[in-house]
Design a protein that fits this description.
This protein is α/β, with parallel strands linked by helices and 106 residues long. It has three helices and six strands. The protein has one domain: Conserved hypothetical protein from pyrococcus furiosus pfu- 392566-001, ParB domain (Alpha-Beta Complex).
């Protein structure tokens, strides 16, 4: 994972991996038991460094799958596991927060 930025940007940091242990949640149905909450975009560390722009710019990009992005809270950090396109859409609309399902791992 790259270090956190020294100036204000969209995310706290951009990563390429999931540094936390496997949690076993795979499908949207698995995640549906995790309640959504408000998260600050500036607190998120991504687990993907690339995004397919077709997904971001598509009119139905938030239609399929879970309505909420999926995050994992682990060792005091908040990782964006799924829903990077939704987080970027929120940033492009100048919204500093979004609702996401947050799984807390200990």
């Amino acid at each position: 994972m790259k270090p956190a930025y020294s100036v204000e940007v969209i995310f706290k940091a951009v990563g390429d991996t999931r540094p936390y242990p496997d949690h076993g949640l795979v499908t949207a149905k698995d995640w549906s038991n995790v309640p959504p909450r408000v998260v600050q975009l500036g607190e998120l560390i991504t687990t993907k460094s690339t995004l397919d722009l077709r997904g971001l710019l598509a009119d139905d990009s938030t239609f399929f799958g879970d309505l909420f992005p999926h995050c994992v809270e682990w060792e005091g950090q908040l990782y964006l596991e799924d829903g990077l396109h939704r987080a970027l859409r929120a940033a492009l609309q100048q919204r500093p927060v979004l609702h996401a399902r947050v799984l807390v791992l200990s």
